[in-house]
Write a structure and sequence with these properties.
Keywords: Hydrolase. Belongs to the 2H phosphoesterase superfamily. ThpR family. The chain is of the alpha+beta class and 194 residues long. The protein has four helices and nine strands; from the N terminus they run E-H-E-E-H-E-E-H-E-H-E-E-E. The chain is 27% helix and 34% strand. The longest helix is centred in the middle third of the chain and has 17 residues. The structure holds adenosine-2'-monophosphate (2AM). Adenosine-2'-monophosphate binds next to strand 3.
Length: 194
């Protein structure tokens, strides 16, 4: 199964982003973007790829520990950015140090459970809202709107394990299906580091 660890913003925060994305979808050029469906919006902490089901108990145990060692922290959706002409995303602000710590701990948890995580790339927190079709799209007009976006703050209080099922039907534009298969509370108090 294909898995990743994530932070899932609460629905009122997704509503705020949804209103901005509705504006983006009305811009010229929006047809060149495959818009990610709102019920799948997430902040990836660690992408694990295909994971042997036999490793799952160990993955779960280690993610639980990673979560419990990390304090609850504030975050908000803020602005946006892009990776080339392909990926358009909303950004985050708030306690990014603790977000990064949780991402690193999730990555380490997966590695120690025996998952080949590939090379360690710098963590860049983002919530993908759309992907350019074909050769990609000019991102400028979308970024102009996303730049002014400030979502409300929330407290991140859980780490979620998500299963991703890629579309198999071949229907154009079909989205992956995401399913929560585990979640663990963050540890509450503490200093944020260590
Ligand atoms: P993206 O949003 O930038 O595409 C599920 O695929 C999640 O894991 C997505 O949020 C995706 O990021 C992220 N991810 C990170 N590395 C990935 C990879 N090598 N292949 C697919 N998804 C990856």
């Amino acid at each position: 199964m294909r898995l990743f660890a994530a932070v899932l913003p609460p629905s009122e925060r997704l509503d705020e982003l949804g209103r901005v994305v509705d504006r983006l979808r009305g811009l010229p050029g929006a047809g060149g973007v495959r818009w990610a469906s709102r019920d799948g919006w997430h902040l990836t902490l660690a992408f694990m790829g295909e994971v042997d089901e036999a490793l799952l108990p160990e993955v779960r145990a280690r993610l639980e520990r990673a979560a419990s060692r990390t304090p609850v922290f504030p975050l908000r959706l803020h602005g946006g950015g892009h990776f080339g002409r392909r990926t358009l995303w909303a950004g985050v602000a708030g306690d990014l140090d603790t977000l990064r710590l949780l991402a690193e701990r999730s990555d380490a948890a997966a590695r120690r459970a025996g998952i080949a995580m590939g090379e360690h790339r710098r963590y860049r927190a983002h919530l993908t809202v759309g992907r350019g079709r074909g050769e990609g799209v000019a991102m400028g007009p979308f970024l102009d709107v996303l730049d002014g976006f400030e979502g409300g703050r929330w407290e991140v209080d859980e780490l979620v394990l998500v299963r991703s099922e890629l579309p198999v039907s071949g229907v154009k534009g079909e989205q992956p299906r995401y399913e929560r298969i585990g979640s663990w509370p963050l540890g509450g108090g503490g200093s944020g580091a260590g």
